Amino acid sequence: MFDSLSEKLQSAFKTIRGHGKLSEQNIKEALKEVRMALLEADVNFRVVKDFTERVRKRAIGREVMKSLTPGQQLIKVVNEELTELMGKESSGLSFATTPPTTLLLVGLQGSGKTTTAGKLASMLRKENHKPLMVAADVYRPAAITQLQVLGQQLQIDVYADGAEKDPRKICQKALQQANHEGFDVVLIDTAGRLHIDQELMQELRDLKALTSPQEVLFVADAMTGQDAVTVADQFNKALDVSGVVLTKLDGDARGGAALSIKAVTNRPIKFVGVGEKLDQLERFHPERMASRILG
Ligand code: GDP
User: Where does this protein hold GTP (predicted)?
Assistant: First the structure.
């Protein structure tokens, strides 16, 4: 994961290693390489600019601590700023005071929404919740079947109604079932499209108004880099999402989405998908990710 970025950052810090003290000149040289490394990792241009400026300001004029070399000192600042960039602290899910808690999963087709619904439901069950997954994609019968198969695999209940063409009615009935049968978390797998269109957004807005979810989670494919960030921004503007699930991080060699999405949307990454298997979902910890990137 993010191997090339890690390598390039290491090389940037090497340039400063021989110096006795952090000076404006040697910080400038190292940051030039940091900037290149981030741009090559497909991090949003503005994000890179702000990031390197913050690091520069903090690094300049710093007394080098006796125990740290200038290289280590700069790494420390970069580490802290990378953590800040990705959200500082780990953000959990909000739960309803009166169950059920409703989670609306939104995103483009193929981003990993359905898989994430299954992974998240499974994670929540391990934490003693009783989840119900809802198949609200009325446009692709295969999507309903996919969720049902996942439900069978995981032994988690799925609300589906292949004959109902109105996703609002599906959600209403699913919430009724949750109330009657004591499901305390309802995960709604909404329809995705290949591209954003107004009809999709309106449908999602309607579902949000109807279900008053505690979380609207935007599911993004990390491998699509800046496209994921742009789409996240658009979904957020239309729907005011509460957080992001970044999938396929295991296949993401660059890291651009992970490093830009919070800064661009101001919404935290809450979970990351790190493989196709149903237990391969992790809570996102910005600090751990920053340390991992810095090697
Ligand atoms: P949806 O159309 O948004 O519901 O997407 P799916 O859930 O059908 O996922 C699309 C593809 O991405 C499937 O082949 C999943 O197995 C795969 N996928 C989802 N999440 C991950 C992940 O975290 N890592 C990997 N490697 N593959 C994933």
Answer: 107-114, 189-193, 247-250
241 close to 109: Cβ distance less than 8 angstroms: no
pTM score of the predicted model? 0.95
- By DSSP bridging, strand 215-221 and strand 185-190 are unpaired
Q: Is 50 annotated as a binding residue?
A: no
In this structure, which residue's CA is closest to atom 27 in ligand 1?
276
**CA atoms 44, 50, 53, 57: torsion sign:** negative
Q: Give the helix/strand (H/E) hosting 203.
A: helix 198-211
Q: What is the pLDDT of residues 145-159, one digit of tens each?
A: 999 999 999 999 999
* DSSP letters for 16-52: HHT-SS--HHHHHHHHHHHHHHHHHTT--HHHHHHHH
Nearest-atom index, ligand 1, CA of 219: 3
Choosing from 104, 111, 115 the residue with most ligand 1 atoms within 8 A of its CB, the one to mutate for a pocket test is 115
**Pocket mutation for ligand 1, best pick of 276, 278, 279, 282 (most atoms within 8 Å of C-beta):** 276
Nearest atom (ligand 1) to Cα of 274: 23
Q: Which ligand 1 atom sits nearest the alpha carbon of residue 109? A: 2
Measured CA to CA, the distance from residue 249 to residue 254 in angstroms comes to: 9
Asked whether this complex has an ipTM greater than 0.90, the answer is: yes
Residue keyed to tokens 């999602």:
204
Parallel, antiparallel, or unpaired: how do β-strands 281-283 and 269-273 relate?
antiparallel
d(CA 47, CA 228) in angstroms, rounded, equals 15
Instruction: Find, among 285, 229, 222, 282, the residue nearest to 254 by Cα.
Output: 222
Q: What pLDDT, in 10s, does the model give residues 125-146?
A: 999 999 999 999 999 889 999 9
110 has binding-site annotation: yes
**Token output for 223:** 């491998």
Q: Which two tokens stand for residue 87?
A: 């959200």
Place of tokens 């990705």: 86
